[in-house]
Amino acid sequence: MQSVGGSADQARPLFGGALSAVIPHSATDISDLREIPDNQEVFAHAHTDQSLIVELVEYQAQVADQDAVKYHFEDIAGSNKALEPGAFEVTSVVAVPKSELSLSQCSSAWMLTGTQCVSKFNEEARNTVTLHLGLLRLPQYSTDVLITFNDPQSISPDSSSAAAVGISREPWTVQDFQRLLQTLTLHNPGLFG
């Protein structure tokens, strides 16, 4: 599948054009394959088990900026049933300077790297996945924009994902994730209600 317009760095409209960002090569829009919640844009790599999710979530006013990205990471761990001790770990949290972002409306931005041991589709097999989270805080819209890059590290041979591994061609990198985070641009604040 070619990237939109053939240019690797062309921004792609998200949420009906209210936002846009540079989505990496080999991205399949999952909404073309199955129903996705209205607050999410989900992309999967065509040849690996990697995925990228751009999600609009409720702004958590009770959580300090530097803790908000961990809050969302733990929320994802809960959704992934990866909350038991040792099943998830945060390895780094860093602030992203606003000067590096296109989304000038955000009050602060954060990147988290961590791992979770998760299973797909309620399988017993558990896969170790590195999660890179980007959090752009928009208190004026009561919204946090959460960008999740799921990058599987070890796939259980019993997982339904096992077939996808080993043939990976040009997997996405942290730089691809950072480019998406940095190029995310707001075109229509009406998106936030």
UniProtKB/TrEMBL annotation:
Gene transcribed to yield this protein: RANGRF
GO cellular component annotations of the record: nucleus
Example GO molecular function: transmembrane transporter binding
PANTHER family noted in UniProt: RAN GUANINE NUCLEOTIDE RELEASE FACTOR (PTHR15837:SF0)
Record bears the keyword Iron-sulfur: no
Signal peptide segment: none
Family named by the database record: Belongs to the MOG1 family.
Source organism, top-level taxon: Eukaryota
A Pfam family it matches: Mog1
Keywords: Guanine-nucleotide releasing factor, Protein transport, Transport
InterPro entries for the chain: Mog1, Mog1/PsbP_a/b/a-sand
Protein name: Ran guanine nucleotide release factor
